[in-house]
Each structure stands twice: as structure tokens, then as C-alpha cells.
Amino acid sequence: MDQMWQVATTAWEPAAIVGNGNKFMIGNGYLGYRGTLDEFTAEDYVAVNLLGLYDQHGDAWREPVNAPNPFFTQVQVAGQPVGVKTTPVLAHRQWLDLKQAVHHRKTTFDVGGAQLTVASARFASGADDHLLAQRVTLTCDQALTITLTSAIDLNVWDINGPHLTPVTTTATGASLQTGEGDTVQIHTHIAGLSGGRQVTTPTLLGTKWTLSLQPGVPVAFEKMALITTSHDVGQPVFPPDYATALQAHSQAWQRRWARSDVVITGDEAAQQALRYSIYQLLLLAPHHLEMSIPARGLSGQTYKGAVFWDTEMFMLPFFNYTDPQVASKLLHYRIKTLPAARAKAQRYGYDGAFYAWESQEDGRDGVSDYNVTDVFSGRPMRTYFGDKQIHISGDIALALWRSYQQTGDEALLTDGAAVIVESAKFYYSYSYWKPDKKRFELLDVLGPDEYHERVNNNAYTNKLAQETAKLALTAMARLATVDPQAYAAVCAQTDYPQWQARIEAFAAQLKVPTPAAKTHLIAQFDDYFGLEDVLVPAVRERLLKPNEYWGGAYGVAADTQVIKQADVVFMLQLFAQDYTIETLAANWRYYEPRTEHGSSLSASVYALLATQIGASDWAYPYFMKSATVDLTGETKQFAGGVYIGGTHPAANAGAWQAVVQGFCGLTDDHGKPQVHARLPQEWTQVSFCLQQRGQWYRALVTQKTATLTPIADPAQEEDHGHA
Amino acid sequence: MDQMWQVATTAWEPAAIVGNGNKFMIGNGYLGYRGTLDEFTAEDYVAVNLLGLYDQHGDAWREPVNAPNPFFTQVQVAGQPVGVKTTPVLAHRQWLDLKQAVHHRKTTFDVGGAQLTVASARFASGADDHLLAQRVTLTCDQALTITLTSAIDLNVWDINGPHLTPVTTTATGASLQTGEGDTVQIHTHIAGLSGGRQVTTPTLLGTKWTLSLQPGVPVAFEKMALITTSHDVGQPVFPPDYATALQAHSQAWQRRWARSDVVITGDEAAQQALRYSIYQLLLLAPHHLEMSIPARGLSGQTYKGAVFWDTEMFMLPFFNYTDPQVASKLLHYRIKTLPAARAKAQRYGYDGAFYAWESQEDGRDGVSDYNVTDVFSGRPMRTYFGDKQIHISGDIALALWRSYQQTGDEALLTDGAAVIVESAKFYYSYSYWKPDKKRFELLDVLGPDEYHERVNNNAYTNKLAQETAKLALTAMARLATVDPQAYAAVCAQTDYPQWQARIEAFAAQLKVPTPAAKTHLIAQFDDYFGLEDVLVPAVRERLLKPNEYWGGAYGVAADTQVIKQADVVFMLQLFAQDYTIETLAANWRYYEPRTEHGSSLSASVYALLATQIGASDWAYPYFMKSATVDLTGETKQFAGGVYIGGTHPAANAGAWQAVVQGFCGLTDDHGKPQVHARLPQEWTQVSFCLQQRGQWYRALVTQKTATLTPIADPAQEEDHGHA
Asked: Do residues B412 and B533 share a domain?
């Protein structure tokens, strides 16, 4: 198989269990199945993570529910379990087939001198959200009697569980209930083996066989599982067999890859990393409901399984260009959760819509006021992600408008205008007027750089807030023209006529980031340049404990100019057209050595802005950092004592952005795409497909040329190819 | 001697050295001499603390200079030093004669079977600022040969020293220089012994005698010291002898006591504690220059020897009523330092006058941005005393105006109006306008309760700020009437005509503390009632280390309703006339169990407001706590790792206020004093003198009656008595 379509490991070590569980994920937007081995259990972070189904256990953080694992597989020889943790391993390989989206493992064990090989494949069907399928093959080089157990393992990994209580169980299925009253059903079907006996323990539901393996004669079984929840409608059914299921799954993935693959010529490392990044985005795309993608995807319960700005500011461009139906679902999730955002604003004493920082299924905020633990005192630390990181509403408003501009989907305007207006109202009501300076200010906020808390006039936040106000005016003016009835409805819903003048004043008189005349530098917030001017390595040396929090009131970064992630640079990347190239470049150069990149969101932003200032060589390492975050990246597993591991879809999407919007210069010129060649030196060519306003294009970018050719939907071409 | 005029201890233990050094202080406003024993050295916290002379050593905090100790006295027998730390003690007594302001000690040592008694007296002359006098008497019950050394000890106790480098030294004196270039001169003169030989080591300058003591025959010497600095004018001279010096000193103190003593009948403990409190205030009163009283008096270098709001909000009433010349000096210190307050405002980007939180001689702010050490990480913690505790300017403005009202001293108006106007300008420029609420707000401040940092609309601060604005308008209106020339000058100095309308708007539209309709409660700041509602003991139990800081971002009190000290209650005590008795009482009752009294300033405020709501029984324990703070109080010696020990003149003054303004109800009715009987149950009578607008009165308050009788200046009566 083409190396460029594969991610593999041939080593196995206990320390890699968590990392491999993320790296070798499969999923279909409905659920994610972690890249664990067949014999693994809850302690190995096995999880079948469900999108959008949350539960709270006791006083702990509310988090998504992990379904039981239908594919627990245990081989025993002479009563001893065979597995990588207990048995000498002669050969081992674990890999993802990215093209087909199938997880594989093949391990040869030394079982008392006999070489027993366990091979398995599994996938989360791209054709049926509820379907998981597994195929296991056992081979031995000599005659060997084994027992084989295939079971649903009810003992699931939870950060803050347990969430599921069995209501009814059989040897092939179970119905379970969450603490909040939702239900999860799991049904399994096995083919290929007969004569087993039922296994039903409190945690295992399955079948056990005693098998006499003959030298060189494989023994195999296939298992399929259907997982449904009380959120679903309809009843899925088992396909006739594994091969049929695999075919439907493969075809679905072929269509997806046809639309979204990016082919890089001249850089295999970049090609593989980018393709893997796209794979991650494809496995997360929700096709079945108006829900968005959690910050750690479907890799587990980290960050409460919540949706952050990651979707709007990083993932949305990929979907807008390659799968607008998914993009529409992501955006309508925010439209749908407007009532929760209004309620949050009201709770804090503001008008308008203050979106959740950690948004769960209905827009409720999963954020805690105490998100970090002080590693010195062991006490929870008051953090301000929920109540001060107000840029979230502007992120959503901007994403809505830019998606509307790009796609021309009028539903985004009619349904989304209220979101933009309510967000603008929120900023107005959050702001203060400074009489002697004759301006509005946004005080006491947390910008993208979370290491500096409770700052005034954060550049990113203020620019977003101003843009939100402008967009509210623009959107409503347009809505009045194109859909007077919808305009009237939004006016009634938002009280816009009473607010219009205030929003105009706010847009005109908010303090916004302005570059200094000589240096072109923009202060990240008021008095930022008065902080200690020191670079990242010096601040790192001040750490007393490796996992202490850099931010907070007293963290090592707090009183310095060292920042967590792109902030001014992000603002400039988003609004490059409002600033001179000197300003873009000067700020990139200033902030770059002062950025710790403590967030996986940071690297791709630096990559993107670097391409915009004509410095693709500066951009390249940041692109690669973003693209490899889940392959080889050393990401933080803990922040101030809190587990934050998992996959990084925003970084995956940022890598795509860096290539497509960065190196290939894809921009939206009033609804028409444009590309510009600014490839890294070693790359000879990049090609990819994209659609805009219903028209598909193939982009071909070389060192010197950039062309867009209108084409038919490449997914339909694929279908024809297979027909 | 009358017990009521004495403070004494007969026990000696090493752990009491620091506490006794504070408790047995003597002083005369120019200098303070700690209550240490004659044989003590720098390690025992011996200090001769100079008012208003500061020095910075290296990068450490700038602090007041301690002069050399002129009275180091060492007795040796057979080469072994005799002293409480090294020699068996048969009897020991250390006491203050409060009436005469003389420190005494008398100790009988067992010196190899012989009983050797060392007795000494010393005072800081109330008649000559520069003069210190000591008398030492040695007696033995059997013949004994001893050596006696009396020397200037140049090795002084410093927190952040050394500050003094000897320039010239002789056996009787030295001239020394600070790092900042100031000089300190010390001259000594000994009488009563002859035949000694000079001692001049690098740190000791004096005389050593070998003496043959005869049984029961005392041997004595007298020593006088003159201390001057380069800040002084004129050259003091030695008085002829100790007795003459003592007489002048005693007469001065007789005059002071005649004016300021308060006689309580029926409660000896209260009488003694209050008299001791008054003693402390008298020994601190600056007679020689426009300087104010540091927060820890002249007991050392704690809190950088800086002047806080303690003077204006606690000490000033005592001096206004008993020694208006001193009060005038205290106030003119603030008037003199207006330029520094304007410079501070400008440094932080504001208009007007932002007074120093820790004011040193010229009004410069000694405050550090890192005033507390995190006991868990050992790191300095960012604190906000300097940049956010903005009530200081209003404290000064209010004190100026109320002193002016009380004394009728027009100089306070002509010289002080600019202070009030500049303070009002400062508040205006610090404030923001909240358009949808149509009000000004004061955001991101630190109120008197320092445990809650960076709060919005602190009740105390906002009320003070509004009052300051009102007073600016009132003061300028009055000045225009009574002194048009001065008015014109202040207008020119402050640009008042340009500011008047803004100050009017600010006074009319600032958010000010308003009691809730049903509960009458006032929130200490925005969202205060949303904090965890828990009482002091529960919060104390959360401490992981005894000396950790309760405040800061993550201190045990930070996210609770537990506060450091009177805040809303202080505001109500100052502005009781603006609120109903129900409001005063409800808030006293609400905040009292939530107040930790982590500041010695807190107790007297609770006492005062309790008397105002007719609850003298609630007031009494708070009065006693305030009055005994330096006698028996368990005050914090460390806050977050920083030494904060010393005397507590604001608490001493608060005790006086609690009796005179609280239990005796002294108020100012448009320039006329009034008293009201509200004594604690056990007290039968209180009598004291006071002056207002040049007229002296004797107040006599019983359980049921309260009378004021005009009298001649009681100090002059005293003089006549002695003539």
C-alpha cells in the first residue's frame, strides 16, 4: 500500500497506549473508536465516544458518554491471556488505511514456543452512522488449543463516570441508561464461528469458543455492532455481511477523498501529514445532525467533549470548500443554540448573545470557573475562560458571515442574522465609554492568549467586536433588501431598530488595534508593552514544576510579554486586508519569538500569516508542526494538573488551511475563488478540489503558476468510476 | 505609681524580644527608640528609627534609616557579659512610665553567687527632638569587680540595609552617610563616671570602665545623645545634665497629657489600654516638620516606614481635637506632596492626583507591585496596592475637608482645595461611563478589603469618589467667596473651570452604594453576594499553611464573602448621615461574621459603627481589641512571608475614636462640638478635653448625661500649676 495513504507503527510500548489510541482513531462523525488493540480494556483508554450525548455524574464535569466497546477480544492459551501487555511479542504492526478508513493490527506472539498471530481490521461505517465492523483472524505455526472470547465490554473508560447503567443485557446486546435519563443501545452480530458458549458477566456480554488451531490454517470471525441512542430516530439494521458493509463504507470514503484530498508533489512528509490531517477531519464530520465538532474530536471526554471556537475559526474553511452540507450543520448548530447564548449573556448581566466557551449539545456552557489546578497548593484556580473570553461570539458571527459570503447560502443570512445582531448587542452591553478618550472600550477580557487574564482592550477581541457590529449592520441591510419578511422577523426577535444606532456608534468608536507609527507594532492589550520583555526560553527556565500553568495571576508568563498563542497575529491573519504588509510582517516578527505555542491552534496561524507576507519558508515549519500534531507532535497531556490529551482537529484543519489558503493562496473574491502560488521551495506542485457556490474546481498550483479549472463534482465522478 | 499610668512586664523570654521592642517604645515624633534592653544589639531588633529619612540599599525596598544606638551598655564580670540572654535572672522588670514617657528596666542577675542589679531609665526628649537621655545604675549585694562599657553601637538593625556608612568617628560620636547621600550625626556625653578608657571598634564607639562595686553602694552614670541629620536646620546642644533634661521633657509631656488624657471610671483595663494608646500617638506626633506618621509608627522599617491612609482615616481626629498644630502638619504633608500625586496619576495615564499608597517623604510611592510572597511557590505575587487602591486620594480629600470644617482653619481650604480638585479629576479620569445604565463606574479597583482584588464599583471607593467630587465643587464655591485670589490661583493650577462640568456630572451620576430594599444590605462590590457565602472560621480551616496570604487571586478568601477588614461598614461609619439606622445595623450584622479583621484598622471601625447603631455592647470588644493591639494583641507578624510587625498607631487612634467619638458621641455640628452618652454598661463616667476652633472644652459623659464645658487651654493650666 502507498505509504502516503498509511500511518503505521511496528513498535509497541506501554507508554504509547494513550498516544496510539488517538493516532489510530477511526470514526464517522456519529462516533469515534479509539485506536486501541483488541485485547485492551478501560484502563487502556478504550473508548467508543458518542457525539452530542452528554451526562453528568455527581458534581463532576459534564462530559460526553462513551458507549460500551463491542469488540473486546481475548485469546487465552492454557488459561493465560494472550496480548501485548502480557505475552512476548515477536512481531507487531498497527496501522490505519487512510483511504479506506480502516484500522488494522497484526501481532505475532510467542505462546510457549508457538507463534500465534492475531490480525484484525475494524471500521466505523461511513455509510451507516451506527455501524461498527470488525474482522479478526487467528493463525498459528503449530497445532494449538486456545479459547477465544468476543464480548461487549460494558466497563468503559470515563474521566468523570460512570455514566451508563445496564437496563437489560443479553449475550449479544445491552440497553443502558445515563444518569440524565438518556439511553444507549448496543447490538452485535457474529459470523464465521459456531459452537461457542455465552459469556455474561457483569461487564462482559459475548461468546467464548474453544478452538483447535491447525498449523497455517487461519481461523476468522466477523463481528458487527449497531449503536443507537435515545437521541436517534429510526432503527438501523445489520448489513448482510462484513464484505458488504466494507464496500459501502469504502465507497463513502472514496467520495469524500475525491472531494477533499490534497496532493503535494515533492514532499512526502508533508503529503502524509496533511493527508492524515484531512483523514481526521473526515472522520469527525457530522452528517446526521446539527452539531459541531468537539475540540478533541471524538477521541474521548477531554475538555468535556465541548465545542470551542476551534470549529468556526479553524475547521469551517475546510468544510465550506469541500463539504458545504457539513459546514451548514456546524453553523446551524450555533444558530440553534442562540437561545442558550442569550441566556448566558443574561446570566452575566448583559444583552445579546454570549456564546458558550465550552458548548455542549444545546449550547449550554460546560466551562468551569475552576479549570486548572495549582500544582503548588493543589487547589483549583479561578480561571476566566467562561466569563471573560468574549471573543467567542464574534468568532461565530464572523464565521457565519464569511461562510455566507463564500457559499451564497441565503439560509445562513436569514437564519444567522439574529446571531450576528445578538452578538453585536452583547459587545455593546459589555463595553464602557471612556469619556475623556471619546471611545468605547472592552475591559477585563481574556483574549486568545489565555496566559494574560483580565486584560483591557485585547486587540483580537476588539477587532472582532468591531467587525461583529459592522456585520450586524451589513447583514441587516442586506436582509432588508433580499427578504423583508425575514428582516421583520429578526427585527422583532432582536429589537434591532432600537439597537441600530447604538451598534453604529459602537462600530465607529470602539478602540481598535492600531499599529504604532514607526514600529508598526500593535499592542496585544493595554499596557502589553510595559510587561517584562523576555523571550520564551527564559520564561520556560523559570518553571519550578514541568506541568505548572504558565498563565493565571502568578504563572511564569503572566507578567511578561510571552504569550500562549497567536493573538495579534491571528487578528492580522483574519483582517490582513485592513493592514499594510509592513504591519503584518513587523508583528509576525515581534510576536513569533514571544509565543510559546501552548495551544495547538497557534502554529497554523503563524504559518498562514507568514505566507501572506511572502515568507513561505517561515511558514513551512509551522505548517508541519500543525500537520503532525497527532502523528509525532509532543502535545501537552496535562495543563495545571488537568488531562487534556486527545486529537487536535483544529490543528489538522489549520494544516489544511496553511496549504490551501496559505501556500496555494486560496481566497474568496466576492464569491469567486482565487489561488496564488506561494509554495515552499521544495514543493513542485499541489492539486486539490474545492467548490464554491455549487461549482467545483480543480486547483493546480506550482512554484510559478496557480490555476483553477471548473469541474463536475469529483465525488460523482468517483461514483461513475465505480459504477 | 498608679497602675493606670504604667505598662510593665516582669517576665523575660527570648520570644518576647520583638514584641517588647514595640510595646515599650519611647519617642518624640522625630525619632522612636524601640523598647529593647540596654545590653541588646542589632539581632535583638534594637532601633532608633528616624522620621522621614529614607534610603534605598541595592534593589531592595526603600525604607527609613535607623540611627546608631547611643545607649549600648555592656557589663562584664570575669570577662563574661552580663545580660538577660546569657546570665541567670533573679528578678526582672521592664516598664513604661506613661505619664513621664520614660522607659525603665531593672534586672537582678545571679553573677557567680553575687546579686548584681542593673537599672536604667531612658527617654526621648519631648522638649528637644534630637535628645535622647539614659541613666544607668549598678548595685551589687557584695563586693564585685566588673567592667562596664557604654558605647554607640553602629551595627544597627535593618530590614533592607545597611544604609549608613561611617564618615568620621570618635569615641563619643560619629558622622555617617546613607547610600542616597544624606548624613546622620550622633554625639554623646557621659557624666557620673571617670577614668574609663576609649573603646573604638568598627562598630562600637564609647568608653569602658573597670569598677569595684561595694555591697549596697550604687554606681551610676548618665548619658545624653544628640542625633541630627542633613534634613535638619540648626544645631542642638546638650542640656546641663540629665535632671534638667528630664524636667523639660516631663513638663512637655504634662502639657500633652493635660490636653489629651481620657479618664474612664469603672473599667481599669479599658483605662490602661486607652491611655497606652494615647501614649503611642503622643510619642509619634511630628512637631518639627510637615511629615506624617508611618503606619507602624517609629517602631522600625516595616511597610517601608511609609505613610498610609491610616493617618487621615484614623489618627487625624485625635490630633484635630487635641493638637491642631500637629494635625495641620499631617495635612500639609499631603498638600506638600500633591506634585508627587499628580506625577503618579500621570504615570498611570490619568489626570489629577493619585496619592501614593505607601507615601515616603516627598510623596513618592514606596509600594511594590510584588508585595507578598507566595508561600507555596516562593514566588513574589503581583499585588495591586499601588495601582488599584484608588480610595487613597478620596481619603485625603475627605480628611482635608472635615478637618477644615472642624477647625475652621482657612489655610486648609486655600492650600487644600487643589488637592480636592485634583483628586476629583483623578476619579473622573479613572472612571468609565456605562451607556446602557447611564452612570459612571469605577472598575478594577482594590477597596479597603484587600482580599478581593480587581473588583468593580467597590462601595467604599465609589462613595469616597463621589464625596470627593462633591467636595471639590463645594470647596471651590466657598473659596471663590472667601478668597477670590486663592480661587483664581487654584483654577489656574488645576484647570478647574474646564473640569467643573465633568466633576458635576460625575458626582451626580456615579454608581454609589445603595441598600437593597428589603434586606438593607449593600454589596461590597459588583457581584459580591454571588461569592461563596461562608464565615470566617470555615475559611480559616482551608488554610494549608498558617502564613499563607488570604487574598490574591487564589487565596482562601478570594472567592468567598469573607473580607479582610471593614469596607462597607467603614463607608457607613463615615457617611452614617446618608443612611437609615436599619441600613447601618443590617450591614454591621451581615459583614461582622464575614470579617477576618486581618488588618488592625478593622476593629475600631466596627466599634464606632456599633455605637452609632446604639449597640455599645457590640462595640466594646472591638474597642478593647483595638486598644490592646500593642499590649496583648496577637497581631500578624508575617503576611505571605513578609515581616509586618511593629506598633499600630491607627488602631491606637481608633481606640480613642471609639471612646471619644463612639461611646461619648463626640460630633462636629457645623464647627460646634456635641457629645452624646452611650457608654458601655460598666463604665460610670468618661472625661476628657478637646478643642474646636480655638476653644477648649471639658467633656463629662456618664451613663445618662453628656456635657461640654468651655475651659481654658488645659496645657496652660498645667503650666500655671507648675509655675
From this structure: yes
Question: Which of the four pLDDT bands, split at 50, 70 and 90, describes residue A718?
Answer: low
Q: Are residues B514 and B463 in the same domain?
A: yes
**Helical packing angle, B602-612 and B616-627, nearest 10°:** 160
Burial class of B449 by CB neighbour count within 10 A (0 to 12, 13 to 18, 19+): buried
Whether residue B435 sits in one domain with residue B492: yes
Nearest of A689, A695, A653 to residue A672 by alpha carbon: A695
Cell of A680: 515552499
User: Residue B9 belongs to what domain range?
Assistant: 3-236
Tell me the CATH number at A227. Answer: 2.70.98.40
CATH number, domain of B459, equals: 1.50.10.10
Domain count for chain B:
2
pLDDT digits (tens, 9 = 90+) for A266-325: 999 999 999 999 999 999 999 989 999 999 999 999 999 999 999 999 999 999 999 999
- A382–B558: do the CB atoms touch at under 8 Å? yes
Q: A441–B435: do the CB atoms touch at under 8 Å? A: no
For residue A641, what pLDDT band results from cuts at 50, 70 and 90?
Answer: low
Q: Tell me how close the Cα of B6 comes to any Cα of chain A, in angstroms.
A: 47
Q: What is the pTM of this model?
A: 0.93
Complex ipTM value: 0.90
- By C-alpha distance, the chain B residue nearest A554 is B381
The answer to whether residue A645 sits within a structural domain is no
Q: Shortest CB distance from A454 goes to which of B434, B436, B454? A: B454
Confidence bin at A593 (pLDDT 50/70/90): very high
Q: Report the pLDDT value the prediction gives residue A633, as an integer from 0 to 100.
A: 75
Buried b (16+ CB within 10 A) or exposed e, A391-405: bbbbbbbbbbbbbbe
Any idea of the CA torsion for B443, B446, B447, B451, to the nearest 10 degrees? Answer: 130
Are B374 and B274 found together in one domain? yes
The continuous run of DSSP H or E covering A316 comes out as: helix A316-322
Residues of A in contact with B553 (CB under 8 A): 381-382, 552-554
pLDDT of residue A721: 45
Asked if residue B444 belongs to a domain, the reply is yes
- Asked about A582 being catalytic, the answer comes back as no
Q: Do A554 and B441 touch (CB under 8 A)?
A: no
DSSP calls for B353-373: ----SSB-TTS-B---S--EE
Residue B244 lies in a domain: no
Residue B438 and residue B290 share a domain = yes
| The pLDDT of residue B165 is above 60 | yes
Asked if residue B296 and residue B197 are part of one domain, the reply reads no
Structural domain contains residue A704: no
